Amino acid sequence: MDLSNVAIVGSFETDLGVVTDRGPMALGVQATLGAIADAGLQASAIDGLITCNSLVTPVMYHAEATAEYAGLTPGHCLSVGTGGGTTYTALRYAAAAIQTGLATTVVVSMADSMRSFMTRDRAMAVQSSSGHPLFEQPYGPTVPAYYALIARAHMDTYGTTEAQFAEAMVSSRAWAHLNPTAQYRERVTVDDVLASKPIADPLKLLDCSIVSDGGAAVVLTTLERARDLPHAPIVLKGYGEGHHYEHISQAKDLTKSAAADSGKAALAGAGIEPADIQLAQLYDCFSPALLIQLEDLGFCEKGTGGEFLASGATRPGGNLPVNTHGGMLSHCHPGNPGAIFGLTEAIRQYRGEAKERQLAHLEHTLLHAQGGIMSSHATVVLGRAN
Amino acid sequence: MAGVDQLDQIFFEGVADGQLRVQQCSDCGAHQFYPRVVCKHCGSEQLKWISASGRGRVASFSVVRRGVSAEFEAPYIVALITLEEGVTMMSHLVDVEPEQVASGMAVRVAFRPVGGADIRPVFLRAEVS
Fold first, then answer.
1. Which residues of chain A have pLDDT under 50?
2. Domain hosting residue A241, numbered range
3. Greater pLDDT, A125 or B66
4. Are residues A323 and A365 in the same domain?
5. Is A202 exposed, middle or buried (0-12, 13-18, 19+ CB in 10 A)?
6. Based on the structure, what is the number of domains in chain A?
7. Is the pTM here over 0.90, yes or no?
8. Contact across the interface for B72 and A152, Cβ inside 8 Å
9. With contact defined as beta carbons under 8 Å apart, do A235 and A211 qualify?
10. CB under 8 Å to B92, separation ≥6 — which residues?
11. Which of B60, B87, B103 to mutate to test the interface with A (most CBs of A within 10 A)?
12. For residue range A31-88, what is the model confidence (pLDDT) as tens digits?
């Protein structure tokens, strides 16, 4: 389905990192209204609002509550909750609503405060909601442990090393060092990662993403309307999803994910190849997730993700800049909204506002997010409007 | 046990009897785990329970160094075990030092309390014949 008649016209990020003066709902509202203002629109122009629920303070009607708080009265509200992949599936549903005439101008808004507003009870509830309640959770797997199972399988199958996984954080910090809004900005070496605290072998603390507060939102509308708005429209050129399993114990292959399906569909929709991508904003919740996405999305051969990371290709000056904002390993990861900052950074890159991180040439961006344990995948290809 | 329906109950009754029960489809012959009302391979509802051999191999594992809660004292070894019947399940490896564990290692089932709670299937290192 041709998506290129839908454009992203507004974008906004709240304060990020450690934000103690505003909770999840306030951040989400700030993001929503900020994105509408950035698009040069009045609140009355918004007829659709899609949000992801908060893990910290979940509410039954999240999008509706956000609209109420913000003083919006949209014709369509939808709260989504597919975990990390939420952002890009929501983007697709927003685009579909616009394409089918259901709505004309839709905000996708996400925020949470895992760092500053999480209670012990909620943290336990969230932890125990990952994994099969009867056949996985009773064994006490932590979220890092699930990804450790994947990392171990990749090491056993392809000879990937712990030092190669460590390159994910080295690359992330090299970018985050250039980004004033990143929560952690100090450069690290492979040895720093290897020497960090063991969490779930083979993963160490610096193989794991951070815990943050923050929110962001984007505004989508028809390309026709976008022509009259302040920012050059960015269009959705391709989209794909893939869902092979939900629980890790049901995975047929621990080292190959449904990112292969979602990536293929998104690139086919855009009519391009992986080599045509100048910026990849990927889901780096844990180092093995990033490594496997690089393979499954076609940026390198299966089994060579470790070498690819170690080559420096993803770092500043590399052939495939990945997560120029610093990603969830360093920049911001408030929970479900984690991937939206990959999108807002891409928009910043298209607008030429990324300062020290600015890429010289940017036509196509690939955005990828996943939910579950490498389970549920969504890929978007962005481009400039013709 | 909370959240256990009648189908799951058959599995846990097996555990109480020292059996590792998995489903087998009477139509296509495939095994599956966890318990379902339909065969995930062919859609048949003609499913029977068998007692698995309890033998399998480590598909992957992680030594958890920071436990999920006070009930789980680190380190402990979470593993994915592929049974001889072809199904994979999450479990613990017990009575083995982390350094001794490798993927592909042969294991056999035992039944022990896990996380200070109910008795569950866990796996021991097996002597390979």
1. none
2. 131-210+235-384
3. B66
4. yes
5. buried
6. 2
7. yes
8. no
9. no
10. A139, B76, B77, B78, B79, B112, B114, B120, B122, B123
11. B60
12. 999 999 999 999 999 999 999 999 999 999 999 999 999 999 999 999 987 677 888 9
B-interface mutation test, from A134, A157, A211, A247, most B Cβ less than 10 A away: A134
Last residue of a domain, one of B19, B36, B51: B51
Give how far the C-alpha of residue A181 lies from the chain's centroid of Cα atoms, to the nearest Å: 16
Task: Report CA dihedral (A98, A101, A102, A108) to the nearest 10 degrees.
Answer: 10
Nearest beta carbon to residue A141 from set B1, B78, B98 = B78
Domain enclosing residue B29, as ranges = 6-51
Q: Which two tokens stand for residue A361?
A: 């040439």
Tokens standing for A300? 């390198």
- Confidence (pLDDT) at A151: 98
Q: Give the three-state DSSP class for A194.
A: helix
In a domain, A32, yes or no: yes
Give the model's pLDDT for residue A82.
65
CATH of the domain at B39: 2.20.28
Q: Which residue of B has its CA nearest to A200?
A: B64
List phi, psi (to 5°) of B121. Answer: -70, 130
Same domain, B21 and B78: no
CB contact under 8 A, B63 and A201: yes
